[in-house]
């Protein structure tokens, strides 16, 4: 990997002054440290002083002697990532800053350099939020059970008692550019050599896709129509959350106006991609999962394990089996996907939320690689995308329906009682409550952060789906 490094000298100390400690002590860490990352509003919940403590704690908990740090385009990201880097350096850790990057570009750097990493982003959250996604060397996730709880406990102790003094020999902070190497690695994993010319509209949502797409797509036979490529963490055009249908309306309209072959939307940190076909109709993440699974199985000789969470369509395990693979069903959440990927040696994994995981990308998620697979599949044949994905979209789905309830467990108990013992119906509780009939299934899960139950329904046809959906909602909302 070619690079240029510019050393800098860290300043300050995790111990810092009483004023810094007092400001940091005002942070509510129970609301800031989530199951998989750190995320909250700036400066109300956290600021540079607390980011510095997180950097020092990350080094203490993981034992890292070197790490890589990147950040997105939010106005607060450069200062927060620098403070974290300084805290880590003052703990004796050598820090490589890669600057502006997507989350999967940070995972690339962690994997390629075999270093732990920290990415400063709040993904699709509004502008006032920021956060840290952490990983160990090789992009292995850091969550509550794999170090994040210990990092939180250590920072909380330092807030009460004062942080220890910095080491005499502080680590160096250097700069490195990984964008071209990241793009080259992704391009090496998908054969794009024979695709036909395509016209593609890309909505970056003023997020990091505007930084990565031009380099990744460079030299491909694509007519690129960019939308909102200007990096702007205030998100002046729409929220960078394509999972909300309201945020892909502009993309859908532009695809139709341009007569484009497809549209692609990225979220704020560009680790997820969403696809619309030539008519502007959304392509479900389950259909993308099935399409990519078939391609990855073919690439691996027609065999291999594919992970999918329990909310993905029935189509996914069917397509995996049809293409010689073994499907494995997991709970929702990237930590469970990555755990199963590592345990089974799976070649690929997908979630209904448009996270796509690849063995050859250190089991990490990368929406950009999934987008390249879609381009390769579409460009390798003559038909439109709508016809191509029809084979991977076999059932009627409700999408996720949220209901605010005061007694989550009581409503789940009522559902369990309503369907237990019904002939031809099975019930499992791998993640929430999943009830399956011959021609339908539904899952209801409780939110971890708000009084909400999330319902997903799928059936053989629209009428059956609507009937089951309405039956379940009547119980949930009783």
Would you write up a description of this structure?
This protein has 478 residues and is α/β, with parallel strands linked by helices. A hairpin with a 5-residue loop joins strand 16 and strand 17. The chain is built from 16 helices and 23 strands. 36% of the residues lie in helices and 22% in strands. The chain has helices at residues 18-25, 29-32, 48-62, 77-89, 103-113, 148-161, 179-188, 209-217, 249-258, 285-299, 315-322, 334-344, 367-379, 385-390, 408-419, 462-476; strands spanning 38-41, 66-71, 94-100, 117-120, 129-136, 140-141, 173-175, 198-203, 222-227, 262-266, 273-276, 282-283, 305-309, 326-330, 348-350, 356-358, 364-365, 396-397, 401-404, 426-428, 433-436, 440-446, 452-459. The N and C termini lie far apart (59 Å). The relative contact order is 0.10. The chain folds into 4 domains: 18-177, Alpha-D-Glucose-1,6-Bisphosphate, Chain A, domain 3 (3-Layer(aba) Sandwich), CATH 3.40.120.10; 181-283, Alpha-D-Glucose-1,6-Bisphosphate, Chain A, domain 3 (3-Layer(aba) Sandwich), CATH 3.40.120; 285-366, Alpha-D-Glucose-1,6-Bisphosphate, subunit A, domain 3 (Alpha-D-Glucose-1,6-Bisphosphate, Chain A, domain 3); 396-476, TATA-Binding Protein, CATH 3.30.310.
- Intertermini distance: 59 Å
- CATH hierarchy, class of the largest domain: Alpha Beta
CATH third-level topology of the largest domain: Alpha-D-Glucose-1,6-Bisphosphate, Chain A, domain 3
* Count of separate structural domains: 4
Percent of sequence in beta strands: 15-25%
Number of strands: 23
If classified by CATH, what would the architecture of the largest domain be? Answer: 3-Layer(aba) Sandwich
Query: So what's the overall shape?
Result: globular
- Helix percentage: 25-40%
Classification by helices and strands = alpha/beta
- Report the C-alpha radius of gyration, rounded: 23 Å
State the helix count: 16
Fourth-tier CATH superfamily name of the largest domain: Alpha-D-Glucose-1,6-Bisphosphate, subunit A, domain 3
Please summarize the sheet with the most strands: 7 strands, mixed
Low-confidence parts: 1-24
Mean pLDDT: 92
